[in-house]
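A sample copied in:

***
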Amino acid sequence: MYSIVNNPEYVADEASMIHIWDSILTHSQPKLIPTYQHMSLTRAWVELTKYPNACMINIIKNTKREAIAEFADYPFSIFPPVRLIALAKNQHKFSPPFSLQNLKNSNLRVGIAKSRSYGIEVDKFIAENPEYFFVRGSESSMSKIIDMLLKERVDAIIDFSQIVLGHQQDTAQLQPIVSIPLQEAAEPVFSYAACANTPTGKAIIAAINQSYQHPEVQQTLQTFHRYYFGEQEYRLLAPYLDKLFIDNHSSNAQKLKP
């Protein structure tokens, strides 16, 4: 038994995410039977260091996190680069491709979720320039940040356009938005399963890694990325997915660079 202790860092279509996870569990050896606890990312990282069998899913790697957690070799999902999302009526405030450095010469304020990783360069800028960001921390912080954008309480947020559009449809907030490329976020974002850095956590990760060798798991991942992100974004992600499974018995996972 082990626990998934977080709300995913990047929430796409929940049913699809469950389908991916169920496929991994079905083909795990030995059989993994999780229990689930929903909590904020901040609390989840605390729990991961307390319990030897605690795990998280859909989590971004960085140096700090790899020091305290054991990550799977293969990504749980690959997302297109994060974007700066703004209301369409305010797009004149941002000249694409937009650099976060431009915030230093403006009165703009960008909403972000506490403890969430947006990629190495974006995280670095946020850490060095916190005064330009409104940080929301709670179990539902990512949804709340989108609501703040739609209510014009922040000028923009950092997220994926597909996630914002999904939230708009779910909440009937249908204001037009624009998705602006960020110079600091040009590469896809890789997310992983991560477990406690303990013998139990390492054993769970080994079982997860083995599941990725099964053709059904590979097909489930391919299908999710094609149909959730659409053909245009899938063309960007497809080379990474293809490379991931070129040879199930090689170390291709180590060659992928998040």
